[in-house]
Amino acid sequence: MPKSHSHPYIPNSVPETKLEMMREIGIRDVEELYADVPQKFRLKQRLNLPKPTAEHEVRRQVEALLSKNKSCRDMSFFLGAGCWPHHVPAVVDSIVQRTEFLTSYTPYQPEVSQGMLQAMFEYQSMICEITAMDVANSSLYDWASGLGEAVRMAVRLNNRTNVLVPKIVHPERLATLQTYVEPLGLRIKSVGYDSETGLLSLDELKRQCTDKTAAVYVENPSYLGFVETQVEEIAETAHHNNALFIVGVDPISLGVLKPPGEYGADIVVGEGQPLGNHMNYGGPLLGVFACRGETELIRQMPGRIIGMTTTQDRSRNGFCMALQTREQHIRRERATSNICTNEALCALTSATYLALFGPQGLRELGETIMVKARYAMQLLSEIRGVRAPVFESPHFKEFTVNFDKAGKAVKNVHQALLKQHGIHGGKDISGEFPELGGTALYCVTETHSEEDIENLAHALKNVLSGGRR
Amino acid sequence: MFKQACWDEPVILGLGCRGRRGCILPAVKEEARKRVGDVLTSLPPKLRRKTLPRLPELSEVEVVRHFTRLSQMNYGVDLGFYPLGSCTMKYNPKIADLLASGVAELHPYQDESTVQGALEILYTLSKWLAEITGTHEVSLQPAAGAQGEFLGALIMRACHKFNGDIGKRTELVVPDSAHGTNPASGTMAGFKTVVVPSDENGCVDLKALKAAVSERTAGLMLTNPNTLGIFEKNIAEIAETVHDAGGLLYYDGANLNAILGKVRPGDMGFDIVHINIHKTFGTPHGGGGPGAGPIGVCRELAKFLPVPCVGYDEKRKRYFLDYDRPESIGKVRGFYGNVAVLVRAYAYILSLGAEGLEEAAETSVLNANYLVKKLSQIRGFELPYAKRRPRKHECVFSAKTLYKETGVRALDVAKRILDYGMHSPTTYFPLIVDEALMIEPTESVEKEELDHFVEVLKKISDEAYSNPDLVKRAPQNVAVTRLDEVKASHPKTMTLSWRMHRKRNVIKGAAP
Fold it and tell me: H/E element holding A76?
């Protein structure tokens, strides 16, 4: 079809160029290159899509759509639950927008990709430092799928038939785990908790953990924000039964919380989003995955791992993909995972972030978050009818807020906060944990000012004293 | 002449100086701190971190310089030709990056009333992708093509389970030219892989396929055009064979770019289709990711898609997250998908429109066939399989003759290409071609650059015949010369983290 202009992204769309190239090939029409596509399948009309749109118009249209959203910049905001608001230093965005990184792909040619390879090695190394593990891969998709991969890895190692998971676990992670292990026929067994503290019931764990248990999984901090303090005992029970101990972490807590490598974790998974990645409406995220250094474990790891090596003439250090014989492009149906495209750019983000914060910064960040979260818990628990947190345990950045005694349903509190005060409250978890009554999960980080927290307390007081149920 | 930057940039964990900082935290108000007390002592001692992690201590300036230097030792699409076969390294429009930042600060659990714009984008994109692939409904959830494959295989599983015969349908048929992810995804979903050979034209051997399918067949995974860049013209018979046996047909969308607007997988009989957003729809590959791998399915399989899908309530004129899908396979990841990537795809499709997408497909195919014609004339390289048939978006050359006559392998050629300031093709894939060089120019390259690439390969051929050592010693113009990849993976020498490096200092004779 004749066109008035070529497309900016398609240099050879100039008709004269096409003609010249076709002449070279010996055809008169590009259609000849599609001659082997059976006619009966060929599209007879154009796709039902918009017409080509100029950049200015694209921008206007998309920005018009985006303007219908309200973000955490537009309102005070207390959501967490697996994706958290943290400050992203300008340096981080600036580095990851460098198009030498952004527009490259998997470093199949390491000599021309040393930049990304070294950055990935540094990411892996920093993840190892903060988790106190020996080896980390260069990313999986997210925490949830990382958990699925971790449990599959445990089963490859010991060929057992069940996995123990705490009852207090993120429902989306549990759902993803179920999907990942269903084909293995693995049973997921839930371990209950102490109703006062939220901590895992050790009695129940000991009863359930047997020589059939492939792995014991805990999250620290837990989904509901409290710190699981019995991790050493849990590790001991798991190891006593020769099961693997898998720990899920929010890595931003590891400046203040003991790293899982120091309490017996065999595999660590977690969500790297807090380390400099924007929330992006839930994706892309960053699956953190690390394990102990035994060759037996490393060989069963999923995902890409970057190693340090030298040039063949030994004149210089360099980096390349290591242990590729675990991966799908070599091992095919016997690969440890099918993962190929991963979240490398998010790993670069987190490497930059950790380099900026350093050891002291990470410690102070953890402390600041804990102070602010605790300040919020104290202010909220002073409100009549509010209990915050529900569990008597130390908390990190998230905590439960119960409204039962205030006589209002969580969703009504939420709507009143949002509509009357322009404040977005925490996640309603009353459907997920009915035994906790009308409860929401709130999150406070270094991004919340004391004023934000005080405003929330005022607004809640107002909402709860205001109307009846 | 091309020279890549070569910085002696140490590993960041060995840099810095005590006390330096790259980031300052907002201060905590004194009254709040006083009121709360010492939070760290609220943690039981056994849960407190005793020794700080051994992260580097750096100023902001040093961090910026370090990573900027590293970036200069990395090759991306914005620098030049990147004909990495099966990866579709096309141009990534800047407007898409700019617009994607508009969802950066949205939280996935926000009240639906506050994210109507984001939901509308996702809803519309899923409809567009359904239109492009000829499928009934699309889920945007998978984070990458391989996760889309895993999800697709799980949907096959769910379907056979629903029909009560998952017990016997245990085999997944995969051609020998398939991407490695296909059999790997099948295994993850609990299937046994059955490999069918290619015929003399590089296409699925129909006789072998007929022999391979049975009442045990769960489905077939197929790339069309296949990894040789050849269209499987017997697709009607292939589909019929698989469907007659009660199996499902899965489309690996890695090569979708070739056929946009020309022919749709759904119309060819595919029941499940994944789409590599980062390939076909021009989103940046990010040094390995993130991408996105939505899947589309036919009407009968829609009920098995993961939750949530994005729905539209006509009555209330509201977009919403639809969790009410009782037959759903569940979830393959947290939340809804790689939204920032998907928004870029939305902008890409809007920019090109139906005509532009077809133009992209046509031009990518024209470019590939132009290379076929030109490269076939170079000594030492030949085009295996179906020489007379047009290729689609990519072509696979064999350097077998070159190797036999000069000792120069496809690997050496790939390394030498780097010296000329270009990225190499995919090598040693598909497995059915010896000394394979898999070349995918995409539509994002001007004729002059294609001619330049041809010129470079011609030079390398000349070098191989006149001075093979020159090629075998390549690369010399990039940051490092050839790396010892065996050392990187050997149990005695592998160094996978700075911690391992500290534990055993294995890199001997290396520069400081």
Answer: strand A76-77
Please give the Cα distance from A391 to A377 (Å, whole number): 11
- With CB atoms and an 8 Å threshold, state whether B331 touches A179: yes
Q: Which H or E element spans position A217?
A: strand A213-220
**DSSP letter string, A186-201:** PEEEEE-B-TTT--B-
CA distance B180 to B196: 14
Residue A467 confidence class, pLDDT cut points 50, 70, 90:
low
Domain-wise residue ranges, chain B = 12-72, 116-350, 486-512
Residue B329 to residue A138: CA distance in whole angstroms: 28
Tokens of B402: 């070159």
Yes or no: say if B425 and B438 are a contact pair by the CB < 8 Å rule.
yes
DSSP per position, A341-403 = S--HHHHHHHHHHHHHHHHHHHHHHHHHHHHHHHHHHHHHHTSTT-BS-SSSS-BSSEEEEE-
Q: What is the CATH number of domain B116-350?
A: 3.40.640.10
Q: What gap in Å lies between CA A129 and CA B49, rounded to an integer?
A: 12
According to the model, what pLDDT value does residue A39 have? Answer: 97
Structure tokens at A84: 């958290």
Q: Following DSSP, what letter does each residue of B91-145 receive, concatenated?
A: ---HHHHHHHGGGTT--TTS-GGGBHHHHHHHHHHHHHHHHHHT-SEEE---SSH
Is the ipTM beyond the 0.85 threshold?
Answer: yes
Query: pLDDT for B10-62, tens place per residue?
Result: 999 999 999 999 999 999 999 999 999 998 888 999 999 999 999 999 999 99
**Cα–Cα distance measured from residue B431 to residue A441, given in angstroms and rounded to the nearest whole number:** 52
Residue B306 scores a pLDDT above 90: yes
Beta bridge partners, A206, equal: none
Query: What is the maximum span of chain B, computed from C-alpha positions, in angstroms?
Result: 81
SS (H, E, C) B131-184: HHHCCCEEECCCCCHHHHHHHHHHHHHHHHHHCCCCCCCCEEEEECCCCCHHHH
Q: How far is CA B336 from CA A174, A289, B108, B288, in A?
A: 15, 21, 8, 21
Which residue in A333, A372, A420, A455 has the most chain B C-beta atoms within 10 A of its own C-beta, making it the best mutation to test that interface?
A333
Strand partners, B248: B219
User: A90-354 has which CATH code?
Assistant: 3.40.640.10
Q: Which of B110, B120, B507 is the mutation pick for testing A, counting most A CBs within 10 A?
A: B110
Alpha helices in B324-407 (DSSP H): 339-375, 400-406
Domain with residues A76-84+358-466, CATH architecture: Alpha-Beta Complex (3.90)
Given the structure tokens 């590891």, which residue do they identify?
Answer: A254
Residue among B50, B329, B390 minimizing CB distance to A36: B390
- Total residue length of chain A: 469
Which residues of chain A lie closer than 8 angstroms to B173, CB-CB? none
Indicate the domain borders of chain A: 76-84+358-466, 90-354
In this structure, what token pair is assigned to residue B213? 């399918």
The answer to whether A61 touches B100, Cβ cutoff 8 Å, is no
Enumerate residues 6+ apart whose C-beta is below 8 A from B43.
Answer: A227, A256, A257, A394
What's the full length of chain B, in residues? 512
HSE toward the beta carbon, residue B229, CA cutoff 13 A = 39
pLDDT tens for residues B184-218?
A: 999 999 999 999 999 999 999 999 999 999 999 99
Mean pLDDT of chain B: 96
The rounded distance, in Å, linking the Cα atoms of A164 and A169 is 11
User: Using a CB-CB distance cutoff of 8 angstroms, which residues of chain B are in contact with residue A71?
Assistant: 104-106
**H runs (alpha helix) in A76-142:** 90-96, 99-102, 114-131
Structural contact between residues B330 and A179, judged by C-beta atoms closer than 8 angstroms: yes
* Minimal Cβ distance to B447: which of A17, A100, A102: A17
